[in-house]
Specification:
There is one protein chain. The chain is of the alpha+beta class and about 140 residues long. The chain is built from 5 helices and 4 strands, in the order ααββαβαβα.
């Protein structure tokens, strides 16, 4: 498991299944979201979430937000992630009328940054997050 995801509480515990199941239901119920599953020889080898966002900036440009890009650890560097991300830019974004594909990546994930940069993504912004305390 990636240390950054463990620090966020993602520890792949069976106790977390209900939370993930609820999140999946909410993602599937929201028309602006798509959850994609990558299969190879009938096995799930990757996932990503896409969210289409209308915007006021850039003359009302629509953005396609990419989240939770995952490729099975034994298949990383096999070309699967590159193929999926190229599909996002070449097929998925035009299909929803998006002018921009955007994503965030944890600042510590320098290998991921190199991966995205090789695909033409530019580290153009500094992102900020605010953690909301839950009861």
């Amino acid at each position: 498991m990636i240390p950054e995801t463990r620090a966020r509480g993602d520890v792949a515990s069976a106790d977390d299944r209900p939370a993930y199941a609820q999140a999946l239901l909410e993602i599937l119920a929201e028309p602006s979201n798509d959850l994609l599953v990558v299969e190879l020889d009938s096995a799930i080898v990757g996932t990503l979430q896409l969210t289409s966002i209308p915007g006021m900036a850039r003359r009302g440009a629509r953005r396609l937000l990419v989240e939770a890009v995952r490729v099975r650890s034994d298949l990383r560097s096999s070309g699967i992630g590159s193929a999926v991300m190229r599909w996002v830019g070449e097929q998925a974004a035009p299909a929803v009328g998006a002018a921009i594909v955007q994503l965030t990546s944890d600042a510590a994930r320098t290998d991921a940054h190199r991966f995205y940069e090789k695909l033409g993504y530019i580290g153009s912004h500094l992102g900020f997050k605010y953690t909301v305390e839950t009861a």
